[in-house]
Design brief:
alpha+beta, two-stranded parallel sheet, 13 strands, about 35% helix
Length: about 550
């Protein structure tokens, strides 16, 4: 009995200790449940937030794309209005009249020369030329609710066409390759990554190895869907007419394809924003593959079956035979009218004037292209400097006419809202090649042979344009503080390349590149970056 009585307190003590240990387990289990609940709630919250952000970004992307389409249509309208004849129903050929020489190839008696009587005097108003004074060349801003769309248009006719590196004539080909090296040599003068002639020559060698089919290797594969263009078909003699030398060229369809080369990376290809608001030009600012595009009329067998194909950027121009080709194209356009209507509703474009081709527009061409046209021994630096100075001078006569006009306050407010500035100050430009005589020293310091050679390379018109759009939703409290500064947040950059043609009912555009996204923003680079004025925030 004593043993039994003494064991009860021990049992109670053991039970008390067991309950105390269970209290610790319950606390741990409670904390563990709270932790799991917190993790689940956090996961649901994060997942919902991410899904919301993704949906918002997709919705903003669709809205920005729609705003970009609207702004793109406005730019196309500006390009159509600026076309010779204002995009009138007569088309390009009728508006320019007979004897039109696109770009003044071979002489300076083109549009507005004043040597063709009253008709030439009427054309001398500069409406047949393209310059940075035109509405399309002005960087614009459009507002669509909370979305801003900024636009930049660069004419491809101010650039050097890569297809000139592969023309059939060996002497002309050698001159064009030397011209290419000079352009790259002057591309980034004054910057740390300036190219020398040796490095430019290596890039040229890579391009040649990549394009010429007989030197192509597995290291430089042909692009998908490429077409082989025949550069030359040369018979050694009449007796050996069967031996024809065909050189297949794997020409790039887009300029961005240059980045498959070892020495061409994104830093060299795209414009680079550097210190002190200076921009180092990239290859995209000085090279093109689009300006030698053409249209071939359909043959009698093709009508009703398949539409005719554009020759595309792979067409190889032959400067020595260009005039003859133009006359042949005119006769073909007359014959094509008897073939019936071409499929696609663009048959009227076959009767339009041929494209401007490889001629460099001196009103818009960047400095490296102008400096590389001819060797410095023939075309001195002072001439290029004076040319650039002239196209940056204020047109006093046009400014007086502009100041004499009645000011529309509502239109001025609209201009400030759209363009972020008041009405643009008019600048001088070259209406035709005869205006080169306005440059000091052109008449008495340049050799006649140099003038003739220069006139075969340049013009004052453009018909192929790259259109850049960047769409964004800037923060409400954000203000621009320096040149080329972009607002934080989502941004959609779009690009298209169009060929402006004169149809029977006005200007029409053929998209050489459809709208697509690009990784870099393009800016209008001043001719004299060292003289860039102090940035002043826009006021509305």
């Amino acid at each position: 009995m004593k043993t039994t009585k003494s064991s009860r307190p021990l049992k109670r003590q053991f039970a008390s200790c067991q309950r105390q240990s269970e209290r610790g387990v319950i606390l741990i289990l409670t904390l563990f449940v709270l932790l799991i609940t917190y993790a689940l709630v956090a996961q649901i919250t994060i997942g919902t937030s991410v899904a919301y952000q993704v949906t918002t970004n997709q919705a903003d992307g669709q809205r920005m794309r729609g705003a970009g389409v609207s702004a793109g249509n406005e730019i196309l309208n500006s390009l159509a209005d600026d076309m010779p004849g204002g995009g009138a129903a007569e088309g390009m050929a009728d508006s320019l009249g007979e004897g039109f020489d696109p770009g003044g190839l071979g002489d300076s008696s083109g549009p507005g020369s004043g040597e063709e009587g009253e008709e030439g005097e009427e054309e001398d108003d500069g409406s047949n030329s393209d310059s940075i004074n035109d509405a399309w060349a002005r960087m614009q801003r459009y507002n669509y609710g909370d979305i801003e769309v900024h636009t930049f248009v660069q004419d491809e006719n101010g650039k050097f066409n890569l297809t000139l590196l592969f023309v059939a004539d060996e002497d002309t080909q050698a001159e064009n390759r030397e011209r290419f090296i000079r352009i790259l040599d002057r591309l980034r003068d004054g910057f740390d990554d300036d190219l020398d002639p040796l490095e430019a020559g290596r890039i040229l060698d890579e391009i040649v190895d990549w394009v010429e089919g007989n030197t192509r290797t597995l290291d430089l594969p042909a692009r998908v869907g490429h077409s082989v263009q025949v550069a030359s078909e040369v018979a050694a003699s009449e007796e050996e007419s069967a031996s024809v030398a065909n050189t297949g060229l794997y020409l790039p369809g887009r300029l961005e394809e240059l980045m498959v080369l070892e020495r061409v990376d994104e830093n060299l290809f795209y414009d680079q924003l550097r210190y002190e608001d200076k921009i180092a030009m990239g290859l995209e600012s000085v090279l093109t593959v689009y300006t030698t595009v053409g249209l071939d009329p359909p043959s009698a067998e093709e009508v009703g079956d398949e539409p005719s194909d554009a020759s595309g950027p792979g067409a190889i121009p032959d400067p020595a035979a260009e005039t003859e080709d133009n006359s042949q194209e005119e006769s073909q356009s007359e014959d094509s009218s008897s073939l019936g209507q071409a499929p696609g509703g663009l048959d009227d474009l076959l009767d339009a004037e041929p494209g401007l081709g490889h001629l460099i527009n001196i009103n818009t061409s960047p400095r490296p292209v102008l400096e590389g046209l001819l060797p410095e021994s023939e075309l001195p630096v002072w001439f290029i400097e004076e040319l650039l100075r002239r196209r940056n001078e204020i047109d006093e006569e046009a400014l007086q006419e502009q100041e004499g006009e009645d000011v529309d306050t509502e239109d001025m407010e609209y201009q400030r809202a759209v363009f972020r500035e008041d009405e643009q100050v008019p600048l001088l430009y070259f209406r035709n090649l005869e205006d080169l005589a306005e440059i000091d020293g052109y008449e008495d310091r340049l050799e006649d042979e140099v003038k003739e050679k220069l006139n075969t390379l340049i013009g004052v018109q453009s018909d192929v344009f790259s259109i850049y759009l960047w769409c964004r939703i800037p923060p409400e409290d954000w203000e621009q503080e320096r040149h080329y500064e972009e607002a934080p947040g989502n941004i959609l950059r779009l690009k298209a390349v169009v060929w402006r043609r004169g149809g029977s009912d006005g200007a029409k555009f053929l998209f050489l590149e459809p709208w697509h996204e690009v990784p870099a923003t393009r800016w209008q680079i001043p001719d004299f970056q060292d003289e860039l004025p102090v940035f002043l925030a826009p006021e509305y």
